[in-house]
Amino acid sequence: MNYSNLFLSVASSTSGGNERRRSSRRGIYSSPANSVHGREPGSVNFTMEEINAATRNFSPTFKIGQGGFGTVYKGRFQDGTVVAIKRAKKSVYDKHLGVEFQSEIRTLAQVEHLNLVKFYGYLEHEDERIVLVEYVANGTLREHLDCIHGNVIDLAVRLDIAIDVAHAITYLHMYTDHPIIHRDIKSSNILLTENFRAKVADFGFARLAADSDSGATHVSTQVKGTAGYLDPEYLRTYQLTEKSDVYSFGVLLVELVTGRRPIEAKREIKERITAKWAIKKFAEGNAVLILDPKLKCTAANNLALEKILELALQCLAPHRQSRPSMRKCAEILWSIRKDYKEQSASDFRSFSSKSQGSISVITEE
């Protein structure tokens, strides 16, 4: 049976610098064990028989997600290794899905960062297209904001998540061989570990940014993304830049502090577009009214809320030139977290007799 793991053809098409960068990391990822853990991203070979065995022939009980690209399954190999297995829709004639598949592979093959899901390999066989990536056990950010897992994540944890995501996007924009625009930053594409560290996933819409060395300022391309997160300037002009990710990140910041989805179709008209509603309340001096009702209204939370909304306002600027870079966003969020921790400590000292059970959980650095 002819199986083809095409990672090598993707790797050979990347730049020499990228090859050297991966090669220099080989020691970190080398492992004597026949396991995806401890191996160089993209270097794992596997067959369709192994995939079928790992997912019990794609049993519905192993299904953990669904998207435009296809279905995601939790898989367990014979050595006990657990991975996420993305199975593309069997739409042989759907050229868009084919493009998204190749885009995700090329992007994942180039990137490696603590806050991005790891890529282990992929397989194309007949009408099957499989991507094998790191399994992140604790669900998506959106699920946690909806309390699907039963616990409320406090503002300290949400702030840590925002910083993790900012670091991931900054890496894509600035520290890869060629800048990458994710194009689909949203809460359902942010996976959380058991320690609530964030990992950005789903690179199906990713694009290489414009080549600044050639003087280009943007990439002209068909609009891709998710309603509610889309940069309106990109939507209007078809001009894609890194600042389109910044806009989506601004929407995400609002989502983190309000707990609401970007579009709330069942609410009254003035509250349906969450970012627009939240920024209006903030401008009117009523930011406290938009704080997620599941969060406590403390001095520390109110301080962080104001500062996060101030940053979100900059990210949501109508014109890309007015938006900060993702690196700047990360720096500002670090400063907000520092002030938040200081205010939280002050709150605790002042109200320790009344604050049993209210100490925020801070994830490990």
From TrEMBL:
- Output the superkingdom of the source species: Eukaryota
What is the source species?
Populus trichocarpa (Western balsam poplar)
| Record protein name field | Uncharacterized protein
